[in-house]
Amino acid sequence: MIKKTMALFLMLVAVYYSFSALIPNEISTIDTPENKFSTHRALIHLKEISKEAHYLGSEAHTKVRDYIITELKTLGLESQIQEGYAFDDNGNLAKAKNILARIKGTEQGKALLLLTHYDSDPHSSFGASDAGSGVVTILEGLRAFLSTNKAPKNDIIILFSDGEELGLTGANIFVNKHPWSKNVGLVVNFEARGSGGSGIMFIETNQGNANLIKEYVKANPQFPVGNSLFYSIYKTFPNDTDSTVFREDGDIDGFNFAFIDDHFDYHTALDNYQRLDRNSLEHQGNYLMSLLNYFSETNLSTLKSDQDNVYFNIPLFKTIIYPFSWIYPMAILALLIYIALIFYGFKKKILVGKEISKGFIALVTSLIIFSVIGFLLWKGINLTYPHYSEILQGFPYNGHDYIAAFVCLAIAVSLFVYHKAFKPDNVANLLIAPLGLWLIVCIGVAVKLEGASFFVIPLMFGLLSLFVLIRQTKPNIILLALFAVPCLTIFSPFLQLFPVGLGLKIIVGSSALAILMFGLLISVFGFFKHKKRWSFLFVFMFLYFMISAHSSSHFSKDNPKPNSLLYILNTDTKKANWLTYDRVLDNWTKNVFDENPQLASALNDKIIDSKYNSLFSYAKEAPLKEIDEPIVNIINDTITNDVRSIKLSIIPQRCVNRIELFSDSTNVFTSFKANSVELKKDLKSQNKDRLLTYFVADDAPLELEFSVPKNQKTSFTILEASYDLLNNDLFNIPERESYMIPKPFVLNDAIIVKKIIAID
Fold first, then answer.
1. pTM (2 d.p.)
2. Hey, which of 79, 86, 457, 526 has its CA 20 to 30 A from 638?
3. Which helix (H) or strand (E) holds 45?
């Protein structure tokens, strides 16, 4: 009994340590030595720059830029501003104002670039995490680095980019237009996709990662989090961070560090100073100091490689790496060992076909029962709590309770199904099925998802457990628990990271991993009695977390409801409408909409650009207001041969923040520029007639230069929007209640003027 207790304790410690080793558990104080990073000192900066939403074009945006420039000057660094317009791949046009500084190195090699962005997302995010955390990490890290008065070997370029939230504008103009970009050998970028959690390392490279990950290990960050599975998945996604521009346009490698937990805060008014996890900021600081100290002294010209490495983090050993060339040999070796152990087990008369079949039945039955119950449960949750759909991030405030509940349910199902199959002498037989399934998984990832090939490591320890079970009728359960540690420490964090990073919609699939893990741990659990009672314990835990999730399912001041409201005036039809993206109306939106609001499908013909291509849900006729419409000036109109060339200017007559430009698909353009930047030809087909979205700064008008067939009757539709619906004197919109925030990712709290420009 003592050994079983010790084995269970060892496994619980492994699970706990698999999470605690991912992030610092305390933060550095204001009294930290001058040459060390201090989270408390960084927070002083963060409190200043996150006082207001500071999106591009806002007054607060200018204040933040001035603050950063002042702090760089305090550090003894001379800064410069790089300005320029750029389009992104989605047709977003903005003028960025990058902040640049440079520390001269003692040698003439490639430069190390420290990167983050200083703009917040329009229009309500305070940008404390995204990416104020990156700004203050770099400012405090530079202060600590420069306090040593040691000149680095490599130049260190500092880039606080602008317009990242609007299409990576600042990174675009730096990589493609600034001469310093030609000398950059490595980028270290800091980001956030939530307000907490461990900082995860992603590699940006067009080639292999072998040299990059080897040097990263040598840099020796204290809490490394990242693996080649994330790297393989990341490469398949249409990523949108500044470091991606460096890779795609400049073939410049980089490390991207981002924390992603508390995803519900991302791009919302909750991304503020108070909600930022201090340990996450400490983690970013730890990354920066490790990499800054190492790569400022390392030859950055040797980082390119045509080889990839498998890598993963594990407590005590930090980051383990091995080459992709080992993937197939390790998978084949595991297969051969599996087959050999089966033959060996039959020869020793430990393995019996009937008992092995029970193991396969139990494993498959567990997966089927959990999948069916989990699927129905998730459907029921969405029906019971339809307001979760208002959180566009796909992760509600009580998401961690649901993760815990589904994992407990998966374990309960496994224990209940297996309890009849367990016998003191058939543990080895029951281990055959999960080992076989994991072997199939490892062979599959070796072929399709090489970065996940480290899954073979827990499998190898599972095979070692099988060998011990065949050899010994009464094995040392503590030894078997030690063999279970790799499975627990490698896979346990995935139970949380997958649904946090990819959305709670995958919770059934991610929680099924607990059943597969349970299968590998049969070598230990097989020797525990009363498995049915254990299953009831986990059912109780499942119910506890479900009740906890229900008790926190309502919106509150700490967990507010996102909502939306817009006013749109059509200057051609002289009609106006209220619009919302909300599917579930609340007290605030019901001030405008009736209990049975009209569907807004007729007003979705021109889709306003948003992260998830959101459509208006409800509409209501609104009173007409005297809102100044933009002036359109034809600057030039000439015909050469069969081509008509036109230059016009759209000049707002009020303070606006963005202009959406649409053109009917029948229009043909042989060339098109906006504010002297050429529009990519394939944009219109991707965005349903939307040509571009222009984010206004410095009250600059939108100037269009285009060429069309001379007989074409060209027309545009423009939607001119300002973020002042709630404080405009023409309206009397009440403030949101304390449990509400503006909905992110969509145009919100806006007054829109719709106008058709016809060129005869």
1. 0.94
2. 86
3. helix 39-49
